[in-house]
Write a structure and sequence with these properties.
Helices cover 28% and strands 17% of the residues. The chain is of the alpha+beta class. The chain has a domain of 75 residues. The strands form three sheets. It has a three-stranded antiparallel sheet with strand order 1-2-3, with no helix packed on it.
Length: 117
């Protein structure tokens, strides 16, 4: 992934050394040694929208609007998607639904392009 994403994805193996991670020092969050303050949003629906055709157009719109509002942090759910017959984690706890994992990776990439965390 060629973005400044501050996330880890199992598909691209970003390491702490190769990405600029937000860290903690005592009770403060740090971004490159500077105090990090943020306003954020919960967007539980992102993985679902990225994973199933016809809904992924919403993702860049969301990130553009979030950036315009000054939101620096977006949190999404990477679990509990799919139906009981096709859960996102697959048929057992060691098998993942490739469509949902690819959707999550797409979100991380788009997040990096918009410089959210």
């Amino acid at each position: 992934m060629a973005t400044e994403s501050r996330c880890w994805s199992p598909l691209n193996r970003v390491t702490r050394e190769s990405a600029n991670f937000i860290t903690r020092s005592g009770t403060k969050l740090k971004d490159g040694g500077q105090d990090f303050y943020f306003v954020g949003a919960n967007a539980y629906w992102l993985v679902d929208a990225a994973s199933y055709s016809g809904r992924n157009y919403r993702i860049p719109i969301f990130f553009e609007k979030a950036k315009a509002m000054g939101l620096k942090v977006v949190r999404t759910w990477a679990f509990n998607h799919g139906s009981p017959s096709t859960p996102s984690y697959g048929s057992n706890t060691l098998v993942y639904n490739a469509r949902e994992v690819a959707g999550l990776d797409s979100i991380i990439q788009q997040e990096g392009q918009n410089q959210q965390h």
